[in-house]
Design brief:
It is a single chain. By secondary structure, the chain is α+β, with helices and mostly antiparallel strands. The protein is 64% helix and 12% strand. Helix 3 packs parallel to helix 5. The longest helix has 32 residues. The N terminus is likely disordered.
Length: 302
């Protein structure tokens, strides 16, 4: 059996990614306190909700940064792949956390519609505008970094915050000029719906990785046929492709060849094909010679 180890991400890229997460954490946590005080003073649910959301963002960013550090730990006898999936676990926790946040904001918004509350529109406008600028900056630095499931989950929290700041700004503006306070909880419900959609999509992607599904951008039959068409290969079976963590795709397969003496050159061709065409680096291939009778394999490529 031949095994091609996965090449880890460059250390400087990981260090830069960690720096981005910690920068976002510091900025978000600082302004969460400002919005919380402003929301309490002005009586704005949208602003208080946004402050609470920013606090959870800080938690999410802290978890993401910790998971990024854990994922870089080397393989051990108990974890032969290392702890790369720590980032996937963090993304799962953060996506579930977002669903709880959405439910909480929606509940309080409905209660505010049933029991209206006075809101200081002018103060809400000012604080929400500053929050919008802060969230835009944090979203920008996260988006510029490495797009793993982990950073996607952290970015989802920040984007939800950004939309919350937009909602609070609009609510404050409308209340300031018209005095119509129901706009505050109504916009909160709208933003909650948008965040819910993104959270469910991220959760679906995370669960797909946990269930070792084929990456969505890879067609398994296409890969199988391409491998089977390589020079020196008779057929391919027991082909499996899955994601270990973001950017780390693994493949294993049994390769039937006519001449075992040519296996090394055939293996080199297959490695080159899988790396250049499908960006698969972590490869395990088992060479076999043809058997007298065909095997009842469901996925058999010739």
């Amino acid at each position: 059996m031949e095994h091609q180890p996965h090449s880890p991400h460059p250390h400087q890229h990981r260090t830069a990614a960690d720096r981005v997460l910690f920068t976002g954490l510091a900025i978000t946590l600082s302004y969460a306190l400002v919005e919380a005080v402003g929301g309490w003073w002005s009586g704005s649910l949208a602003l208080l909700g946004d402050a609470g959301h920013m606090l959870t963002d800080a938690t999410a960013l802290g978890l993401a940064a910790f998971a990024a550090w854990v994922s870089r730990q080397p393989p051990t006898n108990r974890h032969s792949y290392g702890l790369a999936r720590a980032e996937v676990v963090a993304a799962l926790i953060n996506s579930l956390f977002m669903l709880i946040i959405v439910a909480t904001i929606a509940y309080h918004a409905i209660e505010r519609l049933r029991h209206p509350h006075d809101v200081a529109g002018g103060a809400v406008m000012v604080i929400a505008f500053i929050g919008l600028v802060v969230n835009l900056y944090v979203a920008k630095i996260l988006h510029a970094g490495e797009q793993t499931l982990n950073t996607r989950a952290a970015l989802l929290h920040v984007m939800g915050d950004l939309l919350g700041s937009v909602a609070a700004l609009l609510a404050g503006t409308i209340i300031y000029f018209t005095g119509w306070t129901p706009i505050d909880p109504l916009l909160s419900l709208l933003i909650s719906g948008l965040i819910l959609w993104s959270s469910i999509r991220l959760l679906r992607d995370v669960l797909h990785v946990i269930m070792e599904g084929v990456p969505p951008y890879i067609d398994l039959p296409e890969v199988g046929h391409a491998m089977a068409a390589a020079e020196g290969v008779d057929s391919v079976h027991d082909l499996h492709i899955w994601t270990l963590s973001s950017g780390m795709v693994a493949l294993s397969a049994h390769v039937v060849i006519g001449d075992m003496q040519q296996w090394q050159s055939t293996l080199a061709r297959l490695r080159k094909l899988l790396l250049e065409k499908y960006a698969i680096e972590h490869i395990t291939l088992q060479p076999e010679t043809p058997k007298p009778e065909p095997e009842p394999i469901e996925l058999h490529f010739k």
